[in-house]
């Protein structure tokens, strides 16, 4: 790999930068091999922020989705589904599969969580797909290098926790430990520094809760205590980074069921649910929200075929998407990413 004194020989630096800014993210792995200067630029946080501010990032939905049998190795072709990460552009109708995590080539940890930060995917937790032991691993996926790297493990092992991201800070809260004890603890992970910091404890334990970001606040919705397993709370708790106490909101969740992946926020900042008798999807629902659209997956009935819909703007019409072959598997969770 060579080193160039100019970004693009013969062009002023500002014009050369704008040319590179307009490259589609899928061309970044090839462009990064042109020279060290291009590679360093494409991998830098400043370049990502420049693309974001100039409107040249790419918004997509990522789903933890069950894989077709042919994608699994012969050793893993059992009754237990295997999962991978699907990347979907609901506007252009493109579907692709993200490379497997090297440590788990035959399928992701079961019930792992995923979010995005600074244009990267952040995948954490779950159960080992072979022995079902809970995991504390954290992996980051860079779309420029098209590679996963292992980050610093979660400070403890927890399952079915709430997850969200605010300005490069990934927050986890609640869930349960290895002994099925519900948790009220929370941590924040700094993606750039690769460091975990403990947050104040919530007012109560919350297993199988759901995380939402509302403006600058992280919200943990519902969940249940150890002694009341399966009896989902109606309350929620909110916190801002740097604040020393959670704020509890009573009667925030009135569905009396698990809020996992099926809850969103409307234009007035109120909770809404993506499934139900008045919706086109009623079972196995997962909603992924970006600033421009919401993508919802699910079935009309339990065990039915998986369908995908895009909702443009706030409270817009539901548009059914054409699903490419190999991408109709069950969705476990998801997130949006600005690449």
TrEMBL record:
<dbReference type="InterPro" id="IPR044595">
    <property type="entry name" value="KMD1-4"/>
</dbReference>
<feature type="domain" description="F-box">
    <location>
        <begin position="11"/>
        <end position="51"/>
    </location>
</feature>
<dbReference type="InterPro" id="IPR015915">
    <property type="entry name" value="Kelch-typ_b-propeller"/>
</dbReference>
<dbReference type="InterPro" id="IPR006652">
    <property type="entry name" value="Kelch_1"/>
</dbReference>
<dbReference type="InterPro" id="IPR036047">
    <property type="entry name" value="F-box-like_dom_sf"/>
</dbReference>
<dbReference type="GO" id="GO:0080037">
    <property type="term" value="P:negative regulation of cytokinin-activated signaling pathway"/>
</dbReference>
<dbReference type="GO" id="GO:2000762">
    <property type="term" value="P:regulation of phenylpropanoid metabolic process"/>
</dbReference>
<dbReference type="Pfam" id="PF00646">
    <property type="entry name" value="F-box"/>
</dbReference>
<dbReference type="Pfam" id="PF01344">
    <property type="entry name" value="Kelch_1"/>
</dbReference>
<protein>
    <recommendedName>
        <fullName>F-box domain-containing protein</fullName>
    </recommendedName>
</protein>
<dbReference type="InterPro" id="IPR001810">
    <property type="entry name" value="F-box_dom"/>
</dbReference>
């Amino acid at each position: 790999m060579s080193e160039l004194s100019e970004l693009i020989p013969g062009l002023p630096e500002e014009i050369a930068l704008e040319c590179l800014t307009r490259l589609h993210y899928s061309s970044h792995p090839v462009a990064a091999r042109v020279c060290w200067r291009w590679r360093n630029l494409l991998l830098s946080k400043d370049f990502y922020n420049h693309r974001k501010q100039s409107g040249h990032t790419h918004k997509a939905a990522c789903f933890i989705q069950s894989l077709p049998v042919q994608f699994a190795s012969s050793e893993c072709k059992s009754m237990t589904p295997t999962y991978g990460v699907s990347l979907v552009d609901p506007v252009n109708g493109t579907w692709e599969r993200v490379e497997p995590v090297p440590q788990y080539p035959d399928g992701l940890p079961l019930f792992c969580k995923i979010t995005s930060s600074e244009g990267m995917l952040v995948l954490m937790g779950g159960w080992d797909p072979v022995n079902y032991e809970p995991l504390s691993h954290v992996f980051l996926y860079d779309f420029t290098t098209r590679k996963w790297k292992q980050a610093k493990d979660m400070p403890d092992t927890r399952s079915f926790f709430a997850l969200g991201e605010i300005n490069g800070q990934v927050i986890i809260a609640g869930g349960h430990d290895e002994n099925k004890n519900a948790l009220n603890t929370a941590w924040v992970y700094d993606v750039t520094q690769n460091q975990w910091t403990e947050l104040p404890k919530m007012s109560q334990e919350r297993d199988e809760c759901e995380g939402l970001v509302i403006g600058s606040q992280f919200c943990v919705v519902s969940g249940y205590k150890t002694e009341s397993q399966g009896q989902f709370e109606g309350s929620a708790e909110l916190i801002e980074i740097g604040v020393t106490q959670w704020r509890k909101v009573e009667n925030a969740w009135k569905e009396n069921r698990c809020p996992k992946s099926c809850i969103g926020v409307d234009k007035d900042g109120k909770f809404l649910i993506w499934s139900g008798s008045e919706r086109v999807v009623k079972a196995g629902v997962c909603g992924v929200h970006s600033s421009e659209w919401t993508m919802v997956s699910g079935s009309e009935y339990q065990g039915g075929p998986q369908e995908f819909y895009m909702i443009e703007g706030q409270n817009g019409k539901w548009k059914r998407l054409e699903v490419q072959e190999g991408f109709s598997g069950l969705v476990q969770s998801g997130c949006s990413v600005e690449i």
